[in-house]
Batch of 4 targets.
Target 1
Amino acid sequence: MGAFMGGLNRCYNIADLRLRAQKALPKPIFDYIDGGADDEVTLRRNTSAFDRYELVPSQLNNIESISLKTKLFGRTLDLPFFLSPTGMSRLFHHDRELAVTRAAAAHGTLYSLSTVGTTSLEDIAAANPGPKMFQIYILKDRGLTKELVERCKAANYDALCLTVDTPVAGNRERDLRNGMTMPPRFGLKSLVDFGLHPRWVLNALLKPGFDLANISHRVNALEGKNMSVIEYINSQFDRTLNWGDVEWLAKEWGGPFVVKGLQSAEDARRARDHGASAIMISNHGGRQLDGAPAPIDSLRDMRDAVGNDLELIVDGGIRRGSHVVKAMALGASACSIGKAYLYGLAAGGEAGVSQALDILKSETQRTLALMGCNDVTRLHGGFIRQR
């Protein structure tokens, strides 16, 4: 264990954690984290777009103490970034979402659980007394959607997040080539790669838990139908959804309500007018529409459109603390990370997630110090310009 922790301690940035994750996981599983849709243009742009913005420091200011505290959804977070919802964490480490939520709680930031997570929302609530959000879909089975809302209320979740950019699944060609489909269709090359990762295979066999814990009971109730959980959830995506459905869900929930997957100023205004209190500016990590804009490039227009009426969260491409600082200077209320913490989870479970959070925290503090700004909430447009 000491040598393993030593390995994590030698991960000095998120890219290092990514390399450890790549070594730890069979290729089909790693590519499921790492990949995007079609030519992966948007996947790459999500991060490279940050390079178009320059930081403009202000010197000779008192930076003896640096504050990263940020208010979001009525709660105070110790970090200006939180952990976005990602599906099926059991694929990447046997401690599943529990490892992630414990790390988030230890760092005083918010954890988001996905509908297609492999841990129940009640188990997450029991493990994490800190701020939590549940990511939900409006499904054809409105009864299941309402049930999930009521369970979140009973478990004292702080916010509900509706994902709206998945009317159909994106064309994720890495997964198709690897056979990472539902059900899986692994070819010989992929099966050999699993054999080269005996630790992952052993944990998969000895520590099961690949169940989509929040919705599997619904599938079990479908008498006489031979359907996997993934097939069930895919069959439930409703292509007729509209803004009236968003308003309905906002009223059903009655608390901080986030719409995830918007990228235009006009949609930001619509979300505000239909009950949202926050938006996650997101293209689903480049996994849905290839060619969509990077979230950081949509931020200014969306902030101009809604003013201070909504909290705006930049979700996508963040690999450095300087990215967090740039987003906050451009008007973000907070940022969220997905791939960055999943690399940590795959690399070392809870310790790996903590390492990812520590890296980004340290980088954000250092960037603020070099910027001459002692409080992340005091960042403004004067600290940044587009090249």
Note: The chain has a mean pLDDT of 93.
Target 2
Amino acid sequence: MSLAVALTRAQEGVAAPLVTVEVHLSGGLPGTSIVGLPEAAVREARDRVRVAIQNTQFEYPARRVTVNLAPAELPKDGGRYDLAIALGILAAGGQLPRESLHGCEFLGELALSGELRPVTGVLPALLRARHGKRCVIVPVENAREAALLNDVEVRVARTLAEVCAHLRGAESLPAPRNDDAMPSPAGSGGPDLADVRGQLQARRALEIAAVGGHHLLMIGPPGTGKSMLAARLPGILPPLDENEALQACAVRSVCGLPIEPGDWKRRPFRAPHHTASGVALVGGGSHPRPGEISLAHHGVLFLDELPEFDRHTLEVLREPLESGRIVISRAARQAEFPARFQLVAAMNPCPCGYAGDPNGRCRCTPDAIARYRGRISGPLLDRIDLCVDVPRLPLSELDGARRAQDESSETVRTRVIGARARAMARAGKPNAALSTREIERDCALGDGERALLQRAMDKLGLSARAYHRVLRTARSIADLADSDRIGRAHLAEALQYRRGDAGAAHA
């Protein structure tokens, strides 16, 4: 029977559905046809595969070759199916044992010389293959990300000839080396919080944001340290566990971005320019690809000069901020990407940047300031937990040696890890992700605290969403204080960070 079957994986968002490559040889005029909803790059595989087989000193069948990629309703694109198609053709023609393809999955694009070229999305494919208990053969240039998984049998190859020799039992393919995949000590390297002089209130807000995974907005004139503070947030966050790190790396793999073996457990930090489009920020395209919010999954998304972003671009953040995911829908396909990121934003108080400066440098009219701050919608501000001023500091604060209050990232990180551990032991998730029922259970208030919150809601005009976010923030402050209940001081501090709701939206 001139029929052979090989297995491979498609790329659909960060998922990797299984694709069965069926190859049949029949009589008739020689030719190759590929069916199963192939796109241009897959249809062109027939020429790449034919020349690669010939240059590997195998014989390309002088028969009618039909290649079916199942399931037929799944669009196939890219060169990732080349290796599986070539092996299926060789097995169908009797040049490879058909049974040698069983229990294996194959990923790789073929060069005309028969060499294997790397493909994107290898890590998501391996994550799915671990449930099938099959060996996965990938190009050697994908070995780094393949080495991140210890519970999947992976072999790496440089050429089609090496894969064929392995399947024949003549020569075994090596496994990827996993000694280079060991992460560097968490928190090592990177900018240190001790470099920031003064700004005690902003440093405190940054620490609270790190404890609970809260979103943060910093408002201040140019050059006061907003960008410095944001860049140091990943250094005080708790380390990623292995599952979170693999999810973050899977997004990078889909985008074809390099994964450094020693740093794969570091929190992502993405800082797109304010000219970025909505598609660049949330993802999209005819073949949906992840955007910046997905590349920041389990990490930090920093938006500097927030009002300079296009308003429509900012509005597309509203749903991902709540749900932690983004769904890109197109006529022929739909892709879902993870987007559980921590938003840190920075802005000036006015167009010139100096509103409220003691020297009176600002010449902006009230209408100009209102229009500038009005570029950020109320619904988006409502989703930001902490709003803090970052004022200009006097020379006495900047000059001289480091002060005791200028703590290092390592010192702050130790406190953050302890407070986050209390939240995880209580609810199994950061405080910012607490559901309504979990808020009722873990953020119960006494009579005095409830009365204070009621007065604040009436005065500040807080929404129901803001009410829940205040309670989540207060819970993080209480965790930092190692308190089992939310006290009046914890709630008052959480409320002071909501003052920006009225100030930023209506000033």
Note: The longest strand covers residues 18-26.
Target 3
Amino acid sequence: MKSARMIAEHVQSGGSAVAIVQETLAKIDADSSNAFRETFPTEALAAAEEVDRNIARGSPAGVLAGVPVAIKDNICTTEGRTSCGSKMLENYRSPFDATAVTRLREAGAIVVGKVNCDEFAMGSSTETCHFGAVKNPVDSSRVPGGSSGGSAAAVSAGLVPIALGSDTGGSIRQPAAFCGVTGLKPSYGQVSRWGLVAFASSLDQIGPFTRDCEDAALAFGVLRGGDPKDGTCDPAPPRPCELTSTNMKGLRVGIPTQSASDGNADSVTNMMTGLRKQLASANADVVDIDLSLLDQGISTYYVIATAEASSNLARFDGIRYGHRAQAPNASPDELMALSRSEGFGEEVRRRIMLGTYVLSAGYYDAYYNRALKIRRMIRDEYLKAFSSCDVLLSPTTPSPAFPLGGITDPVEMYLCDRYTVGANIAGIPGVSVPYGRDQDNLPLGVQLLAAPFADESLLSAGAALERLRDEANIDGAWNA
């Protein structure tokens, strides 16, 4: 699959968008990763024909003209279903497009289908999806990560150059690392959440999966900008994302001291050790940063996220809409309880119960209120760190992709997000960039974080890291 910018340039200069979409749909049909929930061949080809007609008549072409894109199953589209990977919404059809989808279409992108995800975006492996687990295209015996596993797999397999995902605690960056692609979680408020089915409203953010940071910047420039339908969105108008220097020289790179220890896989430790040397050779200014609250992130996140989830998912009761149990003699309360028990999977039920507990009388102050206070402390710690560095660098994940069914303990699964949840808690941007492989040829990812709304600087640093990687010919160099 060519990059998004190459496809757009080809179509803008007279190439056929229809031919590109036809090729894309054929690749999806032949794919065995279960990345796609469904495709929209009739609608996608009609949209491609319209792009070709507009260009033929001399009308301005969008920056994503003819570029095929995939949309995570928890982001609303008028085409197909928005089922959030759940039996609860298995056949739900949205009457509107999410703002992010509308902006992609306005830029000339072609929505070719919806991709699978963990149920209601709750998971780190895309194994909780009601429509079957997604396989990692790099190794079909491994998970693609989650919750946006279908999005990551679609880009990794070369099915589409751009896929939208959502990131509540690492659900873009973690699967990007596992699948060897680039994943951007923008600053909270940079991209409208209108049309994203809410998991945890103060943490959720829509972002793109791409092959590299230049394509991520292209997509981000289309997605960002104010939206009156989302009161938490920065009111600044949409504008292109311009990358600046892609040179590491003089860049202040902070490396948390906590990211090089505490049970990392050997390949991840070796990657960080080697990368530190490469940064020094590239004349980057490498500084050690103490993030003393890093280990508080998981517990803080799972109090706040589950509390918000229990509130947001209360609307799915099987009475107003959603899966309804077949129980003609049940009272309304019994029908609601039965419908929710049948409609939600085990992980979603677990998080709803945890969230209800931490919000209940007698426990609110001990858990939820305390988590909010620690959240502020974590954000302040990040802001202090950015007074000493331009970006923070760490592994994206503690290990490469694990086998399908390889983690059954929920707490062990939650710990996969150790390095990613902090960005959501603090509302800062983060990007995962592929950086070599381990001894089993599994991709490894490096995460960069930046100060709030420094998304352009973050992507520029990511592009510089990609350049450093390519110049050093990093490919499987981090063997234990």
Note: The mean pLDDT is 95.
Target 4
Amino acid sequence: MTEKKVIVIGAGLAGSEAAWQVANSGIPVKLVEMRPTKSTPAHHTGEFGELVCSNSFGALSPDRAAGLLQKELRIFKSLIVQTADKFAVPAGGALAVDRSKFSIALTDALSNHPLIEIKRFEQLDLPNKENITILATGPLTADELFYKIQAFTGIDACHFFDAASPIIYGDTIDQEIVFKASRYDKGDPAYLNCPMNKNHYIHFRNELIQGEQANLKDFEKESANFFEACLPIEEIARRGVDTMRYGPLKSIGLWNPKWGDLFDRENRLKMRPHAVVQLRKEDLEGKLLNMVGFQTNLKWSEQKRIFRLIPGLAKAEFVRFGVMHRNTFLESPKLLLPTLQFMKRENLFAAGQITGTEGYAAAAAGGLLAGINASLLAKGKKPLCFPDQSMIGSLMNFISNKNQILSNQKKNKFQPMPASFGLVPELTKRIKDKRLRYKAYQERSTEALNDFKNKLDSCFDKDHLLSKIY
């Protein structure tokens, strides 16, 4: 049987991973990306895999759901995670990257692959039915293509509003006020912390909730459906006087040695700040800093005025202001199989945030699975499902029709989901201790994926140079 070329639409995290997996199985790929010919409300470059929100992939440790997902992706030599590891910047217990070097490296790797053909244009329709195609256009899918996807599925799009945090120049902060520390002293002091006393905090909150908002294109603000994991900081502030203090501005676990002895309880209670704003490095040198948890829909002039009220940021200069944009996703449980194939068309796959997964590693996982299965289909073989016991398999089950079968999602509104231990099947024997339970999840996942890897190996030929995925 003649192997077919696979078309991948979109060169974000999912599309980049999918194209890499297909090409490394020895099958030619046409990778279509509309940027920079046409941009989106959130992107700033034409590089592949550009990170438009945070530069963090989440916790590194495999006893956290995000960390286990990263570990699983490393087993399959994920291009996205390997590149993130290469360009990691200090971030305490999280995997954060130098976003510019990360996306440039992805672009170079894909552009130089002998089996990947790059096409820069806006895809206006679904490719014809003869083509094996992976839709990885993300939550910012251009309107014309998404109208065609709607017509194909017969289901209206779902959407929510997402926001990105501002980035400031590192040499414009006041080093006399800002201090380095990681929460509970975990790892190196990877964050810069701006302490607030109660008066600072109350004044800052009042200005936040009264600040002038930017207009949301195409939607009235009152109808905005915010994604809870990326709420604008002003929306968090509106939920209560202390809501920010128990969220992104919590001060617990952060201590400046200049304040004296951390273990002196009386001194600790006296000196602990009322709230703390954290800054995380965008690059290894710390020339650029991300305002952690400060997604916002404030007008740019208001961001400059209000965020400069934060102690240590009075003279801050902004590289990029925060922005808000509409994210669109499919009602995937009604449309997709756990293999990420559309039920209506077996050679059409979807991957990444358009399917309703949330987070960078989850997008890479979707690209990995879609790429593997598109390769198998091109070779005339049956697509596979990742094991239920793995985080990848559990995520794919959640966004697919298996979700419908398992939990009768017809009665519930489908919403995007990040990696979570709540998605994986229960252990045969219940373990009360959370740390031991999460360790057991890891061990079970590793065992299941090793078996799956062996099964997958047997599906690919060993007689040509680029046949091995691993």
Note: Residues 218-223, 406-411, 463-470 have pLDDT under 50 and may be disordered.
